[in-house]
Amino acid sequence: xxxxxxxxxxxxxxxxxxxxxxxxxxxxxxxxxxxxxxxxxxxxxxxxxxxxxxxxxxxxxxxxxxxxxxxxxxxxxxxxxxxxxxxxxxxxxxxxxxxxxxxxxxxxxxxxxxx
Length: 115
Ligand SMILES: [Zn+2]
Hints:
single chain; five-stranded mixed β-sheet
């Protein structure tokens, strides 16, 4: 299972899990899931994936999940302990200079284009 989440959401949840402060403005499904986990005694309810292992229950995650989490920023559910999982690499990553990834696609009409 996967929850759509932005970096800000994930960071807010991690902060929430650490400090147990009042909930910041988080998407409702995330917050509900988080509270459900806390109520179920799964604290911390949100944990990073560490080398393919859920750092909540220390069980190896399915390769598919690990792979997905490594490139698509979202929150995933550990199939074993149901905690929310995130890839720390995607959340803590330093913002890259925009030039690195922006494809240079100019609106120049190419010769191959049919009119
Ligand atoms: Zn787990």
